[in-house]
Amino acid sequence: MPSRSSYKKSRKPSAQTLIEAMMGFIVLIPIALFAVDVVALMSTAQTNEQWAETAARAAGSCSCESMAQTAVKNSLKRFVPSSIIRSVELEKITFDQINGQVTVATVMQINVPIPLPWMNQFEFRASAIQPLLGTPAAQ
Q1: What angle do CA 67, 69, 71 make, to 5 degrees?
Q2: Most buried pick, 3, 7, 9, 65, via CB within 10 A?
Q3: Contact in structure between 130 and 57 (CB atoms under 8 Å)
Q4: Quick one: which H or E segment has residue 59?
Q5: Residue 115: per-residue pLDDT
């Protein structure tokens, strides 16, 4: 009968390798899924900033606040919802003729692609400032 020390040396380490691989995957897979969500959040935050900038440009080309509000709403109507981005809406518009600028704030509602229990929906806010193009020069 072989001694215990010789028995351990002759045993193959395949079970240990399998357990190490399984534990590694248990740790790495959630990290990878979280990374996918982070990339999606960063991308949608940039998209929200672009929508705010587009809406502010549309408002900057108007001569009064009511026309600017209509222009912003029309520019945001072009948004097509997706599985990640649910909506982009106008949060606030500030039409400042004294300073010759318009500020537009948007809010975007987002579903993450891989929902985790503690995070599945987010709301991003962005604002953009554009000069009023139809403002007369100061005298």
Answers
A1: 70
A2: 65
A3: yes
A4: helix 14-60
A5: 87
Which tokens belong to 56?
């502010």
Mean pLDDT of 96-105: 92
Look at the block and give the residue holding tokens 């106008």. 90
Query: How far is Cα 137 from Cα 17, in angstroms, rounded to an integer?
Result: 76
Q: At what angle do helices 65-76 and 14-60 cross, to 10 degrees?
A: 150
What is this structure's pTM?
0.78
pLDDT at 14 over 80: no
pLDDT of 3: 59
What is the rounded distance in angstroms from the CA atom of residue 48 to the CA atom of residue 89? 10
End-to-end CA distance of the chain, in Å?
A: 107
Is the model's pLDDT at 7 over the cut of 70? no
- 57's enclosing H/E stretch is helix 14-60
